[in-house]
From TrEMBL:
Keyword check for Hydrolase: yes
Record domain Serine aminopeptidase S33: where: 34-274
Alphabetical keyword list: Hydrolase
Full protein name: A/B superfamily hydrolase
Organism, scientific name: Rhodotorula taiwanensis
Coiled coil ranges: none
């Protein structure tokens, strides 16, 4: 079942949300909180619900339908501190709605990088310790080599962004780079909500923050939190090698359940690849989820995440949302650069 609802989040912002739930005859085995443009996954998450996995997702601040609410379009007007506050707020919402089943955090592209960085901030956000696992798809840790902006330009843009949160900048993604399906490429090019513009602050935070995640902040990823990172080897938007680098670094730091899976020839939106290819990636992630759900069974008791030694690599075969809850108290972002 699919439910659509507008919810009010931090700073009084109105968010477009979707919530996929199993039918009444299927018990909820787990819940996923997904971070990315919601409606580009309309063909994906009904399959999760069929497997007893509920999915809650929202259009992020500055993107999709959320950016169209209010008197002015706020597309691209965002920052990583705001994104983290929004994630923590809605993760509290999901945890409250599903207190007795495992909860997983899942994101794609910028959302994939935010998932990794949010989990690296476990000392700031206690909700990290209530997660059962994390999934990152095609994360924007670094841009793909063919479109990567020079480091000096990224730093300069980030500085400009600190002076003005709304100063616009072109943020172009070639529709032909999204996936290999011509029909999806055409729909992306004609989608009024896929705007080729951002802000210096939003783009600067994405690029600088992603780089910091793989360069230094990986050391704070919780060692006991299962992690899946997936990436297409033909991605022309975000860098596949950086995803593998992050996974390998956290594994070497002592994380005990880390899986990196690459898909040869797949582009950025692997869930939108043509024909059966899309289902190869979708089923892989769903397989990883169901294999972990079967071993956890119920939600973990909220405790501090503690480091643990050892490594495990896993290869897997291919209700309406409640009203918005009060904003939880949170410590300030500790990384002054974002």
């Amino acid at each position: 079942m699919e439910h659509v609802e507008d919810l009010t989040g931090p700073q009084g912002t109105r968010f477009f949300t979707k919530h996929w739930t199993p039918d009444s005859a299927t018990p909820v085995r787990a819940a996923v909180f997904f971070i990315e443009r919601v409606e580009r996954y309309d063909h994906v998450f009904p399959k999760y619900a069929q497997q007893g996995i509920a999915v809650f997702a929202f259009d992020q601040r500055g993107f999709g339908k959320t950016a169209t609410y209010g008197e002015k379009n706020t597309h691209g007007q965002t920052s990583w501190p705001e994104q983290f506050a929004d994630i923590d707020f809605f993760l509290s919402h999901v945890l409250k709605h599903y207190p007795n089943v495992p909860v997983y955090l899942y994101g794609h592209s910028m959302g994939g990088a935010l998932v990794l960085q949010y989990c690296c901030r476990s000392t700031t956000y206690a909700n990290v310790n209530r997660l059962t696992g994390a999934i990152s798809s095609s994360p924007l840790l670094r841009q793909a080599k063919g479109v990567r902006a020079p480091s000096w330009m990224v730093k300069a843009g980030s500085l400009v962004g600190k002076l003005s949160a709304t100063l616009p900048i072109k943020a172009t993604v070639n529709p032909e780079h999204t996936c290999r399906d011509p029909q999806v490429q055409k729909e992306y090019a004609n989608d009024p909500l896929c705007k080729q513009v951002g802000t210096f602050r939003g783009v600067g935070d994405m690029l600088v923050g992603g780089q910091q995640t793989v360069d230094r902040d990986y050391v704070r990823f919780p060692h006991s939190l299962p992690l899946l990172v997936v990436h297409g080897e033909g991605d022309l938007v975000t860098d596949c090698e950086s995803s593998e680098e992050f996974a390998e670094k956290v594994r070497k730091e002592g994380a005990k359940d880390v899986t990196f899976k690459s898909f040869p020839g797949f582009f950025h939106e692997m869930h939108n690849e043509p024909g059966e290819d899309k289902w190869t990636e979708i089923n892989y992630i769903l397989g990883w989820l169901t294999s972990h759900v079967s071993t956890t069974g119920s939600a973990p008791t909220p405790t501090a995440v503690t480091p643990a030694a050892g490594t495990v690599s896993v290869e897997v075969p291919t209700a309406t949302a409640t009203a918005a809850i009060p904003e939880p108290a949170r410590e300030p972002i500790r990384d002054s650069k974002l």
